[in-house]
Amino acid sequence: MTMTKEKQHKTGVGPLFAGMALAAVIGGATAFGVMKYTNYGQKTYQTVEYRPDFKATEYQGTTESQHITGMVDFKQAAAVSRPAVVHITTYQEVSNRSRQQQHYRDPFFDDFFRDFFEHQQRQQQQQPQNQGPVPSGSGSGVILSEDGYIVTNNHVIKNADQIEIVLNDKRKYEATLVGVDPTTDLAVLKIEAEDLPTIKMGNSDAVQVGEWVLAVGNPFNLTSTVTAGIVSAKARNINILHDKENLAIESFIQTDAAVNPGNSGGALVDSDGNLVGINTAIATPTGTYAGYAFAVPVNLVKKVVEDLKEYGVVQRALLGVSIAEVNAELAEEKGLDKIEGVYIAGVREESAAAEAGLQEGDIILKINGTTIKHSSQLQEVIARYRPGETVTVTYKRGDKTKDAKVTLKNKLGTTQVVKKGETQIVQVLGASLKELSDQEKSDLGLSHGVKVDALDNGKLSHAGIRKGFVITVINRQKVEKASEVAAMLQGHSGGVYIEGVYPSGERAYYAFGL
Question: What is the pTM of this model?
Answer without folding.
Answer: 0.71
